[in-house]
Design brief:
By secondary structure, the chain is α+β, with helices and mostly antiparallel strands. Helix content is 28%, strand content 26%.
Length: 343
């Protein structure tokens, strides 16, 4: 079943429009990664989860009609099988694009069979994705579309929550704020609680948390805290399609990382917006659930079939598709033969 929601009017199309089915092609890659990694749910080995996802995703990305370069990836070239930064993917035809990929956002979640692990891929025109450089982490604020122009990203937490509440026509105690469950957020948690707002703790995987903010029925209204910079770029790609806004400020881990960033020309006091992180006019995003969560249902193995639930999105049309798929385990090329369930 495919349900389609039009979130905003389509922009005029150019004569050099990429393949209209590109987002749906990306779903095949995230489906393959999700199914492969789901075979190891609860095994406790996040590296096994990630390796299985990469092994399944890479060949599918190689079939997509694009000339892609991985800008947001994992590892380095000598640490195969990771999809490394700078790797060229696609079949060598079609548009030149930047790629952001996380075969499993939330590998620890998947290894422990906890909620909200997803497989994600995003792409946009070549040169349009922000390169995090040496900065692994960033301060993040994610707000829904209705509050995007109402918040000051440099305001205190209480003022941010008040602005979002007013924009949504709700009281503070009716808001839910997503926060990564980390010791570094102890003070932030106290500030949020002092306003009366609720907190949804994320054990891992703040890409899913950011998308929840832009999803009307997720029950999450705001995301705050320090998370991964690569994940911030991936989240920005999703928000370009769905609406909503991410504000980020790079957060070096130590003096050396700060010095490295400054030497490379990064301005650490600058607030980066969604368009700063992904500036392309035609952004594609795909995600498939690995474990059950507030955003997507996880992979299901039944007698002879594997079921998945995915999102397919494109910024130019503002269309978000939720795709429920049943894969025949004996015939689907997306289900690796050595990982197919017994039938």
């Amino acid at each position: 079943m495919v349900s389609t929601v039009q979130l905003r009017p389509a922009s005029p199309r150019s004569t050099e429009d990429p393949d209209r089915n590109l987002a749906l092609e990306l779903v095949r890659a995230t489906e393959a990664a999700a199914m492969a990694s789901a075979r190891y749910l609860g095994h406790g080995n996040k590296h096994q989860v990630d390796a299985a996802a990469v092994d399944a995703m890479r060949p599918l990305l190689g079939t997509v009609a694009m000339r892609g370069v991985v800008v947001i990836g994992e590892g380095e070239k000598d640490e195969a099988p990771m999809l490394f930064n700078g790797e060229h993917v696609g079949n060598g035809t079609g548009p030149a694009v930047d790629i952001a990929v996380d075969p499993v956002d939330g590998t620890t979640l998947a290894a422990k069979a906890l909620p909200d692990a997803i497989s994600v891929v995003a792409l946009s025109e070549r040169g349009s994705m922000f390169d995090p450089g040496p900065c692994v982490y960033m301060h993040k604020i994610v707000v829904p579309a209705a509050a995007a122009s109402a918040v000051d990203p440099e305001a205190p937490v209480a003022d941010l929550i008040a602005a979002v509440a007013q924009a949504l026509g709700r009281s503070h105690d009716e808001l839910t704020v997503a926060v990564l469950d980390r010791p570094r957020h102890t003070d932030l948690v106290e500030q949020i609680r002092s306003t009366g707002a609720r907190i949804k703790f994320l054990p891992d995987g703040d890409v899913a948390g950011a998308i929840m903010v832009a999803s009307p029925d997720s029950g999450v209204d705001l995301l705050l805290g320090i998370g991964g910079t690569p994940e911030g770029v991936i989240a920005a790609a999703a928000l370009r399609c769905m609406g909503g806004e991410i504000f980020g400020r790079l957060a070096p881990r130590d003096a050396q990382e700060q010095q490295d960033a400054e030497n490379m020309g990064y301005r650490l006091d600058t607030v980066l917006t969604t368009h700063d992180l992904v500036s392309g006019d035609d952004v594609f995003f795909a995600a498939t659930g690995v474990t059950d969560g507030s955003l997507l249902r996880g992979v299901r193995f039944t007698h002879g079939h594997v079921s998945t639930q995915s999102l397919s999105m494109r910024s130019r049309s503002g269309t978000v598709r939720t795709i429920d798929t049943r894969h025949d385990a004996t015939r689907s090329t997306l289900v690796p033969a050595h990982r197919r369930p017994e039938i």
